[in-house]
Amino acid sequence: MLPTDANAGPPLRRQQLSSDPAEQFRRWFLNAKENEPVFPEAMTLATVQRDGRPTARVVLMKEFDDRGFVFYTNYDSRKGDELESLPVGALVFWWRSVQRQVRVEGEIEKVSPSESDQYFASRPRGSQLSAWASRQSTVVVKRDMLEEQMQIFEKKFRGAEVPRPDHWGGYRLIPARWEFWQGRADRLHDRFEYIRDQDGAWVSRRLAP
Fold it and tell me: Can you state the percent helix, strand and coil of the chain, rounding each to 5?
């Protein structure tokens, strides 16, 4: 259960909500950017292992539009392996400063190579080199091995642009379910979820806290 104080937040009424959950998220995210002091774009990403057990970690949202939420990683990482076997996931945003939480669930797909290229080119050079040097999620006997790999790729790409590795790129979660949570006093929080009706339109309904 999330912590809230006695005056956690204002009421969240259905008439205040946009009929489009993506638009509602934009509103809340803009508000979070103004009030959340550290990484309002941070989101917990949950995926599923091959044996059905869930795993989770915090990643950064790098893009959001009507198609969904984009994050970048090593395709050979643990989460990459999990998404290869079962391409579904869930996201959670938690903005303590405004006592708000957003949950999103849906299928996950890779973004296009051109989108990954464009974002990779915008990264600091050190981050580009680490994408080559680090075999994410594999065992490292000692840190010196990572630093040696960085030196190898610094030398390899010295005086040239660093290309995007084939094993590194973006994923997009395509929302199938949303939930907007506003912290309220006495644990009587406001919760609204959006799901698709049989015609594919978004419908919202209030949930008990």
Answer: 30, 35, 35
